[in-house]
Amino acid sequence: MARIEYNYPLLSHNTFGIEAYADRFVAYDSVEDLRQVVRRLRADCPDVPVL
Fold first, then answer.
1. What is the pLDDT of residues 37-49, one digit of tens each?
2. What is the Cα–Cα distance from 10 to 30, expressed in whole angstroms?
3. Distances 24 to 4, 12, 42 between C-alpha atoms, Å
4. What are phi and psi of 46, to 5 degrees?
5. The model scores a pTM over 0.90
6. What is the pLDDT of residues 6-16, one digit of tens each?
7. Which long-range contacts (CB under 8 A, 24 or more apart) does 11-15 make?
């Protein structure tokens, strides 16, 4: 199952000690979950890059 979190703090994910936020952060359990999330995000927000 995938979780999409909005305005997610990235401080614990970087080594620079920079307080930054992701508009969307996705955590997933399988490759198929990731594929579904990417399809959904591309359909909902076609102009937003998926990294």
1. 889 888 988 888 8
2. 22
3. 6, 15, 13
4. -65, -20
5. no
6. 999 999 988 88
7. none
